[in-house]
Amino acid sequence: MNRKRFAAVMFSFIMMLSVIPALAAEDTRVIEVSGAGEARSAPDVANLSLVIETHAPTAEECSNKNAALAQKVVQVLKDKLAGKGTVETGDYSLNPDYNEPGPNQRPRITGYNAQNTINVETTELMLLGSLIDSAIAAGANRVNYLNFGLRDDTKAREEAIANASKDAQAQAQALAASLDVKLKQVVKASTVPEPRPIMPMARMAMATSMNASTPVEASQIRVSATVMLTYEIE
What we know:
Number of domains: 2
Order of helices and strands: HEEHEEHEHEEEE
Distance between the termini: 46 Å
CATH architecture of the largest domain: 2-Layer Sandwich
Number of helices: 4
Shape: elongated
Number of strands: 9
CATH superfamily of the largest domain: Protein of unknown function (DUF541), domain 2
Largest sheet: 4 strands, antiparallel
Structural class: alpha+beta
CATH class of the largest domain: Alpha Beta
């Protein structure tokens, strides 16, 4: 046998060997299922955003007035926290106010408004009502938002994945029973990337008396997961 013919025979033999596993894989019967799971955890951190809004005839007066109130609010919040959280200034805006012009009239500037945002993060959730009341008393006009979160959601996410896996297994068993087949080993398992839990908004009610603190009720954090399982069946 010459070299060319020998090489052709060997090539054909190698190609046949490579096809055999592929054919075997195609003959493997599988079912695929997905399971959903959820875990809930009490929040351990809160984010509070307060807004200071001022109005004045001139831009300079409006800005100065807002800055003075912002400094006062920041100082009050820091005193209340006593090192148990952070206080930072956020968005700031200064815009003219306009009148409502009549027909064929051009709007004119009647004054200016400034808005300054103060953001607070703390793990002392029991202080939230007092923080809100103190900030409002110092000059803040409104609560922009108050929400809760987890500093580390690893444990909750692991619990959610475990619950999703149990759900997927139960679905696989039910599906196999309905198809009159038997489950064998899991040949593939994966999790679907889930978004980080959205921090829920707090439920608040303003205090009904000057001596009462604004009550704040924290919502539990929900962490979800999805697990995909592929079973070999017989």
